[in-house]
Specification:
The chain has 464 residues and is of the alpha+beta class. The chain has 13 helices and 16 strands. The protein binds 4-amino-1,4-dioxobutan-2-aminium adenosine-5'-monophosphate and magnesium ion.
Length: 464
């Protein structure tokens, strides 16, 4: 393999007057008998390299066959340019890896995001998707950087699990039992002792419970960052059946500490995105969300709003007098996306942390408040997306947790190990889960979650 320069490096180092080799895919082309312009990109940067090919080149007849998406290697002289980019290349040798066949489904003109979802295997070749996925990478790196700096240990929690971490029953079952010959027990129900794991197992909806066990008494502070799975039948622009979640869990931490951690983390993501993906953000803003950069800048430099659920409901009820919500608001309801977005987008106009929800609408593990009615929960709502983060201080009292589980008719025997934590060295602790795709949506300004994950999994769709 010949030594070649990544196009990102060409623009970083600008080795003007030197002969270099680049490789990539043709982004656009203009050809005539005398010379051709090729615009090349290799995925490492938003910037394209302009290449001029003179008609006197020995294999010029190959060059004029190049079309959008063809793959080439070009050797040539890098020269300063008056064009859009500060440098361009004068080709001395062009090698074609693959001429695109004529039915290439991507054309130069803008293609709709909906259409591109149908050819998700090719969409990374568009400026939009290469920008989104470079940004996604930077946000993933920034996540590890942030939690490492805060002394959290990256923990790989299992994907196959026997417990429902959210208690919402939205799990995909994993089984190797033959569907046409399910073994039955004496009671006539499916005999899962005959199944692969000897019990009923599922894809995890959250690594939280396992993360808690490592945080409390073991490592103190941990975070997970992995795929999670939910079989909820939500066909919306914000829900996936398979999504990635970042879940920190910290000992000796209260709800207030948790809210501070979440605020700092989200701001860190925005900061790194702006520093390292400026061109990507500018491109996406220009095409999809003109105000996005200004908004991010504003978010970075102002505090998040904090409001209790009870106050949020009062605000929404007051607003309901003049603003029509599809779902009526009263104390005890689970806030709908329209309510969440109204609070963050129109009322507070910034990320908003809603705390202390009614226990009935939140998960079993959240710490009960003195009032006996609300729990130490928090949701972080952001403009454009709604719920970005869900978290809480955890119930660290054994008796209260057992009581809550029995009220919810949960089978506590399945959670024996989780309950053990409350017996051995229990401490106040808290954590949250950030939906990684929702973070990418929020920061990129993309409005459909299917456009920020390489291959979206949604109800009735698992193509690719
Ligand atoms: O609010 P959730 O369900 O909280 C948990 O799973 C907790 N165990 C987290 C914790 O405390 N460790 O989910 C957390 C976040 C949501 O705020 C949302 O951003 C995202 O995960 N999320 C989804 N993202 C995409 N598609 C879905 N179906 C999602 N469900 C939740
Ligand atoms: Mg939630």
């Amino acid at each position: 393999m010949s030594e070649y320069l990544l196009i990102k490096k060409v623009f970083e180092n600008k080795p003007v007057d030197q002969t270099i080799i680049v490789k990539g895919w043709v982004k656009s082309f203009r050809q005539s008998k005398k010379f051709s312009f090729l615009v090349l990109n290799d995925g490492t940067t938003q910037k394209d390299l302009q290449i001029i090919v003179d008609g006197t080149l020995s294999n010029y007849e190959d060059v004029i066959k190049l079309t959008l998406g063809s793959s080439v290697e070009v050797e040539g002289l890098l020269v300063a340019s008056q064009g859009k980019q500060p440098v361009e290349m004068q080709a001395q040798r062009v090698h074609t890896f693959c001429l695109n066949s004529e039915d290439y489904p991507l054309q130069k003109k803008e293609t709709s995001l909906e259409y591109l979802r149908e050819i998700a295997h090719l969409r990374s070749r568009t400026n939009t998707f290469s920008a989104v996925f470079r940004l996604r990478h930077v946000l993933a790196q920034a996540t590890h950087e942030f939690f490492t700096n805060e002394s959290f240990i990256y923990l790989h929690t299992p994907i196959i699990t026997a417990s429902d971490a959210e208690g919402a029953g939205e799990m995909f079952r994993i089984s190797t039992l033959p569907l046409d010959k399910l073994p039955k027990n004496d009671k006539g129900s499916i005999d899962f002792t005959k199944d692969y794991f000897g019990r009923e197992t599922f894809l995890s909806v959250s690594g939280q419970l396992e993360a808690e066990t490592f945080a409390v008494g073991g490592l103190g502070r941990v975070y997970t960052f992995g795929p999670t799975f939910r079989s909820e039948n939500s066909n919306t622009a914000r829900h996936l059946s398979e999504f990635w979640m970042v879940e920190p869990e910290a000992s000796f931490s209260t709800l207030e500490d948790n809210a501070k951690l979440a605020t700092n983390y989200v701001k860190h993501l925005i900061k790194r995105a702006m520093e390292q993906c400026g061109e990507e953000l500018e491109f996406l803003a220009a095409r999809y969300a003109p105000e996005n950069l200004k908004t991010l800048e504003h978010v970075l430099n102002s505090p998040f709003e904090t409001v209790s659920y009870t106050s949020a409901v009062e605000i929404l009820q007051e607003v309901s007098k003049t603003h029509k919500f599809e779902y009526p608001v009263s104390w005890g309801i689970d806030l709908q996306t329209e309510h969440e977005r109204f609070l963050a987008e129109q009322y507070f106009k910034r990320p908003t942390i809603v705390t202390d929800y009614p226990k009935e609408i939140k998960s079993f593990y959240m710490k009960l408040n003195e009032d006996g009615k609300t729990v130490r929960a928090m949701d972080v709502l952001v403009p454009g997306v709604g719920e970005l983060i869900g978290g809480s201080q955890r119930e660290d009292n054994y008796d209260k947790l057992i009581k809550r589980m029995s009220d919810l008719k949960m089978d506590a025997t399945n959670y024996w190990w989780y309950l053990d934590l409350r017996k051995y060295g229990s401490v106040p602790h808290a954590g949250f889960g950030l939906g990684f795709e929702r973070a990418v949506m929020y920061i990129s300004g993309m409005t459909n979650i299917r456009d920020v994950i390489p291959f979206p999994r949604t109800p009735k769709n698992a193509e690719f």
